[in-house]
Structures are given as C-alpha cells and as structure tokens.
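[Automated response] Your request has been received and processed.

Submitted sequence:
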Amino acid sequence: MLVGVLLASVTACGDQSGDSAQPIPTFGSGQRSATSAVPARETLLPSECGALLPGVGIEALLGQPIDSVQSRSVIGVSAPSVGRLEKVTCLYRRTATRGGPTDIQLSVYAYVDATSASRHTATNIRAERASSAAAEDLSIGSARGVLLDQRGQSHLLLSSGRSAIAMTMRNGVVPPDQSRVVMLDLAQRVLPNLAPEWTAESR
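Generated structure:
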C-alpha cells in the first residue's frame, strides 16, 4: 500500500510544474520485483547518483523541469570501527538556487552485516533526536528508521539489511505537505539498489 500512496502523491506534486517536468514511472507487480535485484558491480554501492535512482530523474521526483537539478557524487571512506565498508553521498542542488546550499544530501552506506548497519543507524538516530523538534518512527518494507523534523530541514535515517540511508532535505524544496511523501518515495527507490545481503562471495 505504501508504494501506491507514495507514487500517487508524488505524481500529483510533479504535475504542478507544467509540461517540462519529467513523468514519474509507475510499476506493476512484475516490474516491482524486477527492480529489487541489485545490479552486478564491483562495489557494494553504486558509485554514481544516477545508479541510485535508475529509471527516473531526480527532477521528476521533485516536480522540477528537466535538467534543472544538478547532482554530484562524493565517495566516502570506510569506518572499520563501526563495520562500515563503503559510503557514497549524492548532493542535489536546483540550478535556480545557483550558489546556494545543497537542497538534498543523500548518503548511502554498506556494512559488514545487518547488525552493524542497524547498530550504527540507531546510534546516529539517538544523536540526531536531541536537535529535532519532532520524530516519527517508520518502516519501508524491511527498512526501519525515523523521520526527524529539524530546524530548516527534514532528516531521514533508515537501515535495511547491511545497508543504511541518511537523507536531508531543506525546507522549501517541495511544498511543505509533500516533504514526507517525497523523502519516503526517494528512499523506497534507492533501497533496492544498495548492498546485497552477505554471501560467501561477498566481502
């Protein structure tokens, strides 16, 4: 049900931007299962922002015109002390806000196992709650986490299997009543493209 509600709401947001906005694809049950497979690659995480959101542009999800959002990927370092193997951050900024702050910061993480991912995410959540006006515990499929209302932004933290997501979106990027919907929809699309579960062939 969550998939349908999110897609319907975000599509309504995208329609407000006019004919120049990208259409947001919808998925039948067969397509949804096909998108859940992690593409073959040499790393646990995609190294490019486009690979985190295959099949749809970030502009469409934000209800913006085509080519109106710039993205930049930053490869992070491992953190053995918490079991983190990889980190990739995608920075999104609307071209209309040239020189302004990042609109969305999306960081994805791969850990040695699900316990490490869940434990480190829980630690981060405890730290972020202290500076948050409100917190909503939530789940997307098997992913568990929290959506935090902070000064000037919303902050989403999730863990799923041996992967985790931390997403921050500035207030005003989308209409206030669409912020939660858009962030959850982004997370839902990113999660299937993260680290596969550990096997004998995995690191």
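Summary generated for your ticket: The longest strand covers residues 84-94. Residues 1-36 have pLDDT under 50 and may be disordered.
If you did not submit this request, please reply to this message.
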